[in-house]
Design a protein that fits this description.
alpha+beta, globular, 3 helices, 35% helix, Alpha-Beta Plaits
Length: 106
């Protein structure tokens, strides 16, 4: 399993961010080949200080190859271009692989 974590920084206009994410960006996920699932996590608070991120989007792919295919597809490129339309707080992307180092409570 390969996960892509997209961390959206605190936007300038939270209401506009939420509307665009829900109405425009989230539907783009259906056009991402190889995507097995996704999860949207709203960041409630940080351990200390202001929260650094508004949302964490977790994209789940079965393999490295499927992830590359999905992100390089027309749908993946469309999603990447869309960040500039609403992610005024910036975007950080992390690529993660499941390993035997951590347990699972699923």
């Amino acid at each position: 399993m390969v996960n892509v974590l997209v961390l959206f920084g605190e936007p300038v206009d939270q209401a506009a961010f939420d509307t665009h994410f829900t109405d425009v960006h989230r539907p783009m996920l259906t056009r991402l080949p190889g995507l097995e699932g996704y999860r949207v996590n709203e960041v409630a608070a940080a351990e200390s200080g202001p929260r650094p991120y508004r949302l964490v989007l977790e994209l789940q792919f079965p393999s490295q190859e499927a992830m590359q295919e999905g992100l390089n597809s027309d749908g993946g490129q469309e999603m990447a271009r869309d960040y500039s339309h609403f992610a005024s707080g910036g975007v950080t992307i992390l690529f993660c692989e499941s390993s035997g180092l951590a347990g699972s409570s699923a």
